[in-house]
Amino acid sequence: NLRDIDNQRRALAMLSDLPQPSGAELYLRGLVQHWLGELAHSHATHVEAAAAGNADAMFELYVLYTQGLGVEADGTAAQQWLERAAGADHPRALYNLGAAIASASTSAADMAKAASYYERAAQRGNARAAATLGVMILQEEIPGTTDDAIRWLDTADEGGYPSWEMLEAADLADPREA
User: Fold this and answer.
1) CA 34, CA 152: separation in Å to the nearest integer?
2) How many angstroms separate the CA atoms of 2 and 145, rounded?
């Protein structure tokens, strides 16, 4: 819609005119550039925001390098940005790194290490990570009691992730219905 594009261009102009933008403001500028199709500029702005310590920009760079948006797709660079974002406690980065470790896409599967990333992600509000921890306990992939699993599943539901979907995908009965 032309009105949306006009609003995005105005937002970009305002963000570009800031004399000393913060990492968060740079991240927002990069997002608007992306929405406007200015992918190379978006990449450069996200690099600047990441250098300023913005974890959202670090995660966005992981996405850009994974998908080849504004840059050549580069799995090594993507992994480095994912690890930097996780090091900055970005919830989605923590979840994605845990998933990579659990699925053995980076090395041998290590469920305890994956669970540590999921737990950090869940503690930072990633409800899907909480559901994953509940399911991992129920599948005996990591230590824990049924009560522990229920607490994680409840946390997922409270955070907006419907834990029943993950239970159903894993073909598990909901322990709260026992």
Assistant:
1) 35
2) 55
Residue with tokens 């992600």: 121
Question: 């994912």: which residue's tokens?
Answer: 82
Does residue 51 contact residue 88 with C-beta atoms inside 8 Å? no
- Residues whose CB falls within 8 Å of the CB of residue 20, separated by 6 or more in sequence, listed in order: none
Helix (H) or strand (E) holding 143: none
The stretch 149-161 carries a mean pLDDT of 98
pLDDT in tens, 14-46: 999 999 999 999 999 999 999 999 999 999 999
Asked if residue 45 lies in contact with residue 33, where contact means CB atoms within 8 angstroms, the answer is yes
pLDDT at 155: 98
Token pair for 158: 């409270």
- pTM confidence score: 0.89
Handedness of CA 70, 79, 114, 169 (dihedral sign): positive
Q: Are 123 and 89 in contact (CB under 8 A)?
A: no
Whole-angstrom distance, CA of residue 68 vs CA of residue 84: 19
Helix axes 127-138, 146-158, angle to 10 degrees: 160
CA-angle at 91, arms to 87 and 97, nearest 5° = 60
Dist CA 17 CA 4 (whole Å): 20
